[in-house]
Amino acid sequence: MTLFRATFAVNGDDCHQRQKVGDKSIAPSTWQIRFHLDRVIEGGTYMLRIALAASHVSILKVQVNERAGEAGVEPRVRPDLPFSAGDAKPNQERGQRAFQVGRGGRRAPLFSLLPRCRAPPTPPRHRAPPPPPRRSAPPPPSPAPRAQLPPSPAHPCSTASIPGAASVACRRLPTARQQLLPRPRSPRANCSFPGIRPSRASASFPRIRQRRASFPSSAQHQLHTALRHLLLGSNIINVGERTVAMAPDQMFDLNFEPVDVDGDDADAAIDNLLDTPQGVGQQPEVAHPDEGHASSEDDNAKSAGMTVPTATTASGAVDVEEGVEVISTPNDPCVGMTFDTYEAAKSFYNNYARYKGFSVRTDNSKETKWAGGTSRVKYVCHKAGVNKKKKPAIDGPITEKEVTKKRKRDHIERTKCPSLMAVKFTRSYWVVDNFRAEHNHDLVQKFSLTKFLRSHRDIPPEEKQFIRTLHNCTIKTVRAYQLMCELYGGEQNVPYTVCDCKNLHKSYGVENEEKDMKKTFELFDEMKKQDPDFFYDYTLDKFGRVEHLLWIDGESTKQDQVGTTGSFVDTGISRTAIIIIIILLFIASIFVTDFLLTIAIVILVLILIFVSNAVTVAIRTMRTSILTAKRHIFNMYSTVASRSPTIFIRTVFLIRIISGLFISVFSITLIVVFQRFLIFILRHVSWIVPVLRPALTVEFSNPVTSIVRRRCRNQFLFPLIDLSSTNSNFLDKACCPLNCN
DNA sequence: GATCCGCTATCTATAAATGG
DNA sequence: CCATTTATAGATAGCGGATC
């Protein structure tokens, strides 16, 4: 039962900020969450789950049962739990516990503290042999026979939250039946090793967990320890002589009776709940020899001063401490290894490849009739095969394109690398039927650099959502990436590049590409309701797309000051431009004796000056009077006037040319009257609009290519477009009365 | 006949250079 | 810093020969 879930978009202002009390003093703010429970089980066990994001040194203080101490109300916290020095500061009065995190410069890693959704566990088709006992830590006895019943569908995890927001969620303790089910810890069950016990470094090397393990350990360990004590201390784990925990993937309903589990599982449950990588911030776990190996290559590399991953590290963890990378050691693939899906096989091989320092691609796949689809897939090193032959040079004259300097591109030189892993479908599962480990090229030795390899670059879904949220909050792409670097503890830990963020940002624009016109017209309709004089019209091309768009706001005709307000039609003419034209005419008459040539030169100058000026005025008008929101980070002038010569404003063109010719003969007053007369005609003589529409509308693009139009729409109308999700109030801002401040 | 293997052509998605 | 462009990687399918 999720009681509260906060997001930046909806309630970003609900962040727990300090409050000013009086002039100088600052007091912390407090959230109080009340659980309205219909049925409370006395002596039951309930779990409070907290996600915390802090950018500075922060103190988390949790108080449970504020009525503790009152008559008939028992305090539900254990005041006798020890706290590690530096990890937590107990304040045990009235059941309070306070923890300080983020101290020492390193900030609490964000995502490692957040709950996440897990996919429903896939029942393994091919069961792994029982693992032998560990040497270092013998496993506890199995509490109950598992996997006797088919796994129940996982409850939809509703605890996923937008990063950066606090969330409080509870989960249901497992029922007796659920305890008999295989614990969906990881995709490890999707893989089995013939003759080899499945290790934590096997196919259970989930990418997301591996990535999360790359957070720095110090602050994470602090918070982990703090929350661990909090959970252990607040009657979560102790019921009688047994400890109580929850299944990691089961929702916790406060109205269900809790079920005990053994202490080790409780320990693991909390580890899983906190989503903290094993061993991070603790003594590195010594891996079993079966789990990996420290090859002679590694030793050689070490002796050569290179940083190599070692086998004696935590599972899946990569940390950077004083320049030394620490990662886990996945098992090598071997013939006979089985997987549920070929995607799982690829994921496993990809993780192995990242540890080794190469990238993976799919070489080819074959289909057979009996399999009903792909039956064999071969994954190879990214340097397998040979580079494509370049097309032979075309005889003939050298074109301009060939002369133009070509871009520098990354080039992967394929070396016929023999490394591969082939999996074959055997009617029930996928089995590795071929594996070659040797490479004929150098591998990436430093683990943190492997993120640049193609197959290892990825932005996890939750971080995509986070970046999108940042983007909607006007945080630029590069800034968002810098933030992620900060959260990861350094750019070397971020599993993607700033270029990936840019491309992700670009994809957001593509999503809205088909919505912009609809949103624009909705906005225009709204504006028309508020401004009865507002007028707009449009034409469609043969494909039904908006070809021309015209709008006139009501303020344009009410302003006496020509040239500073108005719409695309009423762009007016600036007095500065008039002076310039008179000077140009004077100069031209001095140096050019031919009358017609003089007129031609003047017309050209007029076009250049007026069109440019008109666009400038129109852009300024749009910026100040219509697009009132703050998300206008685009260079309209360069878009319309400089970069797109196909775009011009016919209306302005005609009006300005005619006006400019009149300037040399008549007074400025006549021009103003003429312009206002045109506008009056446009607004009040209905039949003239369709007649003059082609000349009175703004040409946005060549309808064939639509590139210019898309560019113009993306930049010019983008603030009107992205109305989804977080900026739901943007429309209200944009629809405020025109020329409002 | 089914399968495997190597090679090539074609298409698509995208990384990243480029210009404004 | 952003939108646009474009070369490239990767995916896919097809073909022919070899092998079982």
TrEMBL record:
The chain crosses the membrane at residues 572-592, 647-674. Residues 68-160, 177-198, 275-307 are annotated as: Disordered. Residues 118-154 have a biased composition (Pro residues). It comes from the Eukaryota. Signal peptide: none annotated. Residues 68-79, 287-301 have a biased composition (Basic and acidic residues). Residues 347-444 form the FAR1 domain. Pfam families: FAR1. InterPro entries: FAR1_DNA_bnd_dom (IPR004330). The keyword Metal-binding does not apply. Keywords: Membrane, Transmembrane, Transmembrane helix. This is FAR1 domain-containing protein.
